[in-house]
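> call design_seq(struct)
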């Protein structure tokens, strides 16, 4: 079974923050593309509903931890313009990654779903 982790993050954009949110996300994704370990990052936005969804695919939990460490400033920049409504982790994260997302589990916004079966082609 794969060690890959897929994150799905649903964000509510703060009123009046649409353009700063877009700018912060673009800067964060550009940084990640050049420097961080993700295999894939895709962000979708619904301007009418003022929400966005981000998907991130990681090889393993070690890559998640490395991303968090190197990208914290960008994560904080995006967070200034939105709130997390849902945070879903698909896969078997390490205990350290599970602790890192525990705030979302504790207040009902998050979930961790272990894999059943599947494959990736890259």
């Amino acid at each position: 079974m794969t060690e890959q982790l897929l994150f799905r993050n649903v964000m509510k954009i703060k009123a009046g923050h649409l353009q700063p949110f877009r700018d912060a996300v673009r800067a964060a994704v550009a940084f990640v593309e050049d420097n961080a370990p993700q295999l894939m990052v895709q962000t979708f936005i619904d301007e009418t509903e003022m929400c966005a969804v981000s998907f991130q695919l990681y090889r393993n939990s070690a890559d998640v931890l490395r991303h968090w460490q190197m990208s914290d400033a960008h994560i904080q920049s995006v967070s200034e313009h939105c709130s997390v409504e849902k945070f879903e982790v698909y896969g078997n994260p390490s205990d350290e990654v599970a602790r890192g997302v525990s705030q979302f589990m504790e207040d009902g916004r998050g979930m961790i779903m272990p894999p059943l079966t599947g494959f990736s082609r890259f």
